[in-house]
Amino acid sequence: xxxxxxxxxxxxxFTADMVRYAGAEIRPWSFRFLRRLVSQxxxxxxxxxxxxxxxxxxxxxxxxxxxxRQLAAILYYVLYNLVRLLLQIxxxxxxxxxxxxxxxxxGGILLNSKLIAGRNLSITHGVVIGETDTGVPELRDDVTIxxxxxxxxxxxxxxxxxVGAGAVVTKSFPANxxxxxxxxxxxxxxxxxxxxxxxxxxxx
Length: 204
What we know:
Layout: H1 10-22, H2 31-43, H3 46-62, H4 66-87, E1 89-90, E2 96-97, E3 102-103, E4 109-111, E5 116-117, E6 122-123, E7 128-130, E8 138-139, E9 144-145, E10 150-152, E11 156-157, E12 162-163, E13 168-169, E14 177-180, E15 185-189, H5 192-203
Parallel strand pairs: 1-4, 2-5, 3-6, 4-7, 5-8, 6-9, 7-10, 8-11, 9-12, 10-13, 12-14
Antiparallel strand pairs: 14-15
């Protein structure tokens, strides 16, 4: 996703986010879909942070009515600070993340406001994506970042990179790489079995 696209197709983007929680087998925004989202919000409080993040993007990039935009921005700041204090999740609305964002659980999550990430980014508690003097990370589609992992500096993680728990990523990795360690090193490459396991985890 490009920064200039942050205000485009936000409803479709938000729907793709919620599908990551409710499951692709359920028709979006049906009664069953909404009921699944309620249960998932209890199991994965990060869902609320995703909703507030997308709402913030709407207030900043898509809302064109001046008074409504100002009122919505005030509401966003209230919600953003509640998420930051209660869930300990910070995702500024200027952060660029493609459709299908999923945050499992909560706590200690900090994403840099200049981050550029593709579709279907998956993160969980303790994840930090930050800037150094070398720049800000850029993540391609379908990147998964494990518990308490850090991705820092001007690195690029290509499609379907899987960062293991506790890893500290300070260099770029190619598509389908599974990385772990401090600093992170390539362990192996993902295969079809990994994809099946990932889908099963999301649907459970």
